[in-house]
User: Which sequence fits this backbone?
């Protein structure tokens, strides 16, 4: 999905008496390109006629973007006279994201309108973001270290859950669940040589209570 953007901007600066002091004209051009695609494989197995079921999903998603930017700033005083040389800045911003995920779910019906569900899920994400900026100085491109950056990030989440639900009667139903989730993440700021690592595990209990007085109304309380 390619695209091109061109923008012009005028910035006027006034003093406290509302008199024009200076004007900055900015012209920006941006050429962008996005290439995204994804794939999914899913399958379901019905284990018996009672409703026992096993399902699985595998996903892969890829995002790729590239932006080439050019900015030109021109400076004028209140008489529309140039006050200095133009400032020219160019940017090169490629970005890549890859997402992998897989999960498996099991459903086991019980007697008296109850059932148990359980599952496992794992996801892995890696991103690579680059922002390269250069200033045109004396007809030579010089890296702008204040704007340039390169960041790598990886994140892996593994989770397991189990829940039990039951229709208490024709109007009331309830569900209880528990999810265990472990997150491992790593960040690497290549420009400043800074890194961080995180590894933590959390429990997420859930409780749902639903009341259906008729076919047009429903009330629920969720935690």
Assistant:
């Amino acid at each position: 999905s390619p695209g091109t953007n061109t923008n012009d901007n005028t910035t006027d600066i006034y003093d406290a008496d509302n008199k024009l002091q200076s004007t900055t004209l900015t012209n920006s051009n941006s050429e962008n390109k996005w290439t995204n695609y994804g794939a999914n494989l899913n399958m379901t197995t019905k284990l018996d006629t009672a409703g026992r079921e096993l399902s699985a999903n595998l996903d892969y998603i890829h995002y790729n973007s590239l932006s080439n930017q050019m900015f030109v700033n021109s400076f004028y005083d209140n008489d529309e006279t140039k006050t200095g040389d133009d400032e020219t800045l160019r940017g090169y911003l490629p970005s890549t994201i890859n997402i992998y995920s897989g999960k498996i779910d099991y459903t086991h019906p019980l007697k008296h309108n109850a059932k148990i569900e359980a599952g496992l899920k794992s996801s892995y994400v890696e991103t690579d973001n680059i922002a390269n900026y250069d200033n045109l100085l004396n007809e030579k491109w010089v890296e702008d270290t204040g704007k340039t950056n390169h960041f790598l990030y990886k994140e892996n989440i593994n989770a397991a859950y189990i829940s039990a639900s039951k229709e208490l009667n024709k109007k009331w139903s309830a569900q209880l669940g528990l999810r265990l989730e472990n997150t491992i993440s790593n960040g690497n700021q290549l420009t400043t040589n800074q890194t961080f690592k995180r590894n933590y595990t959390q429990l997420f209990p859930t409780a749902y209570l639903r009341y259906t007085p008729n076919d047009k109304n429903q009330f629920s309380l969720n935690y």
Summary: The mean pLDDT is 95. The chain is about 0% helix and 80% strand.
